[in-house]
């Protein structure tokens, strides 16, 4: 399975994952301009890395993983997700959905389109989420 995952990740990177990963990192750099945006920027770089190599990784709610609430999974996280959605989330989601539609044109592109849709959902509300490796 590791070889297949590597092949899919390399194909993903060459066929569009690089572009969306850079979009996440650009959003992260823009967030780092203000002190308030640093937590958003950190999340952008983590998710951007996942966007470069998505096969074998998934995202989940941090509260479900740890069993306890933190600042990102509580009321501040909800407020942060609303601000994120308005500034960056909608645009990253549109980029992922556009790439997904292009991937769904061919049968071979369907797994790539599914990954783009997974990342589009994550791009709408990334605060309080964490990236985990699939078993």
UniProtKB/TrEMBL annotation:
Transmembrane regions listed in the UniProt entry: 7-26, 32-53, 74-91, 97-114
Keywords in alphabetical order: Cell inner membrane, Cell membrane, Membrane, Transmembrane, Transmembrane helix
NCBIfam families: PRK11770.1-2, PRK11770.1-3, PRK11770.1-4
Superkingdom classification of source: Bacteria
Protein name: Inner membrane protein YccF
Residues covered by the Inner membrane component domain: 7-57, 79-129
Highest classification ranks of the organism: Bacteria, Pseudomonadati, Pseudomonadota, Gammaproteobacteria, Alteromonadales
A Pfam family the protein falls into: YccF
Keyword Transmembrane in annotation: yes
Keyword Iron-sulfur: no
InterPro entries: Inner_membrane_protein, UCP028777, YccF
Protein location: Cell inner membrane
Topology versus the membrane: Multi-pass membrane protein
């Amino acid at each position: 399975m590791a070889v297949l995952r590597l092949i899919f990740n390399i194909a993903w990177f060459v066929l569009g994952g690089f572009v969306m990963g850079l979009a996440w990192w650009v959003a992260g750099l823009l967030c780092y301009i203000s002190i308030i945006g640093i937590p958003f920027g950190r999340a952008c770089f983590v998710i951007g890395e996942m966007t470069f190599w998505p096969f074998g990784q998934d995202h989940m709610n941090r509260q479900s993983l740890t069993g306890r609430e933190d600042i990102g999974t509580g009321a501040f996280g909800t407020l942060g997700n609303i601000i994120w959605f308005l500034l960056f989330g909608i645009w990253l989601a549109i980029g992922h959905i556009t790439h997904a539609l292009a991937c769904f044109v061919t049968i071979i592109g369907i797994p790539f389109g599914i990954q783009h849709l997974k990342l589009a959902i994550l791009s709408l509300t990334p605060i309080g989420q964490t990236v985990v490796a699939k078993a």
